[in-house]
Specification:
Length: 714
């Protein structure tokens, strides 16, 4: 049966298109970026779809905020002495609720179906207690068109577990409804939104130094203090949503409302987030709404019985399947899918008090080709064409609108490699509404340089260009490496730089080799330059702050189910005589410098990218940054340009003792500027700067000079 709610949706879209957008000269986003003008029809159509869908939701559900409370209707809820269970499964011919509570006898609890394909059943209290005890196993049993009965985990289940030690066992849904005295109660408020997010990307399961799956409690008590100590202000948690295949890194989600049971219970995850908040750390969740696991027994795919797409979570045919990921693709134009996904966001925000999301796989969502075998050149026609998935873009607009309406201080980040314009502009302008996008081209540049280009041939201009290549009307999170760069088949940057030398050459009790000295020096410079030039925020993956060696490899048949490469070797940085501590201390210092000056918010001027000298010089407000990538040459009295005249002094120096350097730069030296050129004639200045001063710049080091006393210009 056709859903009447979508008939209204379509009529609203038609009215919006004819009455409003034809008359509107320009969308605000076009005024922000005039290059969008040739594509304004596409953007207006997209915005009309958004407005139409929003009005339909207001008509039939009372608005986005009520619509996103789906978890209060679907799944298991307690209502007036009954546990009420509801499940959307239009193709089912009959349905039952089974579990421990009824000895898996579905005939004792048949379900009824409404006109929208929603099945429901009411289970009364027994002796004043819920009819289904907390912690009971439950499943949804439905009859297919051919008469066969199949069992599935409820789509809105809040917790799912698997029998420990049983290889290939299916998951069971768990009714999570602890007594009041067993529910975790948050004690600490959400920290305020930081001026600049410095994000620590982490995976709880692989956060232990032991070869095992770490717990939420262990992470909260042992890893969070490390993150705080290194001056990060945000934690981004991967693999929180339940996923039956551990080696998927959490990206093949089976239970969207369930926490990953490998690391503990829902209440223990709440403790982790509350503990982070107590330390002043915000917590973002890596949310996966771009696809779903194709696992039939444990996940949403089990509800696909071959029905038409409007009665399914997914598209039918090839459109509903991601060939590279071997996973299912959502139909974002489906009423119940939108309810499910929007409610999912609200559930994590409210039940667990997450502070926002990093949306995974946004590129796959935005295009019908999913970015497969596509090379985005930056031409606007690559982004706005028949290849664009407008339904997915509209869903993301609704998602951002919802998140920012509920929690104005929430942070949303898009993982998009395509660089689509408008992604980081407000929905009210006609944008998609993300606060930040990931600057995904930066890691690839560093990897290519390290693998293919000798140090002496590095182009400073090309490095700076890559780091600066972003849309300045849309904020970006820069990173030199994330979890992606560490997966099996690749290496961490530290291991790429130093490789097997790290096994025996990291002791500070012996003279360091040329390879180790180069590796540590470049590790510091690459990460700091990425932070300082690459965006409006910074991200680091767990362990890379101290140069974690090797790579990540989850337990699998190919490695005999080993956890050896699926952990973090904290003992390396904790051992005082090992050189890992130097990279870690520098990471602390560069984060502290950003916290003190918030230099990523200050005006940026690059005054020199000297390919022969191998030096990059730039300013952020009253800070002057100097990066000398030359493998051999130390410059004494190296002249650098600046805008503000006065006295400068070292604020950060990678060559300092605490960072494993040779201590060649004097921190007690005052640098006084000299005027350059003719006042009022910039072409006569030094590197287009009206002032200059001289510095000592050792090979493979970086430094930041801070203006202590400003003087009057001549």
């Amino acid at each position: 049966m056709a859903d009447p709610r979508w008939n209204f949706h379509r009529s609203v879209i038609k009215a919006v298109k004819t009455e409003e957008h034809v008359a509107r000269e320009d969308l605000p986003v076009v005024r922000v970026d005039p290059l969008l003008a040739p594509h304004q029809d596409h953007l207006k159509y997209r915005f009309s779809q958004y407005e139409g869908r929003k009005k339909a939701i207001e008509k039939y559900e009372g608005g986005l905020e009520k619509f996103s409370l789906g978890f209060q209707k679907f799944g298991f809820n307690y209502e007036d002495g009954y546990i009420v269970y509801r499940e959307w499964a239009p193709p089912a011919q009959a349905a039952q609720l089974i579990g421990d509570f009824n000895n898996w006898d579905g005939w004792s609890h048949p379900m009824e179906k409404d006109k929208y394909g929603v099945w429901s059943v009411r289970i009364p209290d027994v002796d004043g207690k819920p009819g289904i005890p907390h912690g009971s196993r439950v499943k949804f049993r439905m009859q297919r068109g051919d008469g066969q009965w199949i069992d599935r985990i409820p789509a809105w289940i809040k917790y799912a577990t698997v029998e420990a030690g049983k290889m290939g066992a299916s998951y069971d849904g768990i009714l999570w409804n602890p007594p009041e005295d067993q529910r975790y109660k948050f004690e600490h408020p959400r920290p305020p939104k930081p001026v600049v997010p410095r994000i620590y990307e982490a995976h709880v399961g692989m956060s232990s130094k032991e070869p095992c799956v770490a717990s939420y409690i262990d992470f909260a008590d042992n890893v969070l203090p490390r993150i705080k100590s290194n001056n990060y202000n945000t934690v981004q948690l991967m693999a929180v949503m339940e996923h039956s295949y551990y080696a998927s890194f959490g990206y093949h989600v089976t239970n969207f409302f369930g926490v990953s049971s490998r690391s503990g219970t829902p209440e223990e995850l709440k403790y982790l987030i509350d503990r982070a908040h107590s330390l002043g750390l915000r917590v973002l969740m890596d949310v996966v709404h771009s696809h779903a696991s194709n696992n039939i027994k444990d996940g949403l795919n089990g509800f696909d019985l071959g029905q038409q797409t409007q009665e399914s979570y997914f598209h039918t045919g090839d459109r509903g399947y991601h060939k590279l990921w071997d996973s299912r693709l959502f139909n974002y134009n489906n009423w119940e899918v939108e309810r499910f996904l929007l409610s999912n966001l609200r559930w994590w925000l409210e039940e667990y008090q997450f502070d926002g999301f990093r949306f995974d796989g946004v590129t796959s969502m935005l295009y019908h080709h999913h970015g497969i075998h596509m090379s985005f050149s930056g031409r606007y026609r690559d982004y706005f064409s028949e290849a664009s998935d407008v339904d997915a873009a509209v869903y993301l607009m609704l998602a951002n609108e919802l998140v920012h309406t509920l929690y104005p201080d929430a942070t949303t980040i898009a993982e998009d490699v395509s660089g689509m314009p408008t992604l980081g502009r407000p929905v009210s302008e006609g944008g998609v509404g993300f606060d930040y996008r990931l600057a995904m081209g930066i890691p690839d540049t560093w990897i290519k340089l390290l693998k293919e280009v000798a140090d002496e041939h590095w182009s400073m201009a090309e490095i700076a260009s890559t780091l600066l290549n972003r849309r300045y009307t849309e904020k970006a999170i820069a990173y030199a490496e994330s979890h992606d760069q560490s997966l099996v088949g690749d290496k961490t940057l530290a291991f790429m730089l130093m490789d097997k030398e790290m096994y025996a050459g990291m002791s500070a009790l012996q003279e360091q080799s040329i390879i180790i000295e180069r590796g540590i020096a470049l590790h510091k410079m690459i990460h700091f330059l990425t932070m300082a030039l690459g965006g409006d925020g910074y991200l680091n993956f767990m362990g890379n702050e101290f140069g974690h060696p090797e790579w990540i490899d989850f337990p699998r048949e190919g490695n005999k189910w080993s956890y050896d490469k699926c952990r973090r070797q904290w003992d390396l940085v904790d051992t005082d005589h090992l050189r890992y501590k130097f990279m870690n201390e520098f990471d602390k210092a560069m984060n502290a410098l950003e916290e003190k000056y918030h230099f990523l918010t200050l005006p940026l001027i690059v005054s020199s990218t000297h390919d022969k000298d191998k030096v990059i010089v730039f300013e952020r407000g009253d800070l002057v940054f100097v990066f000398n990538f030359h493998p051999e040459t130390t410059y004494e009295g190296y002249k650098i340009g600046c805008d503000l005249p006065g006295k400068y002094k070292i604020a950060l120096d990678s060559d300092a003792f605490d960072f494993g350097g040779r201590v060649r730069v004097g921190h007690d030296v005052d640098h006084f500027t000299s005027p350059e050129g003719i006042p009022g004639r910039p072409e006569t200045n030094f590197n287009n700067r009206p002032s200059s001063f001289l510095v000592l710049s050792p090979a493979r080091t970086c430094q930041v000079n801070h203006l202590l006393i400003r003087s009057q210009r001549a």
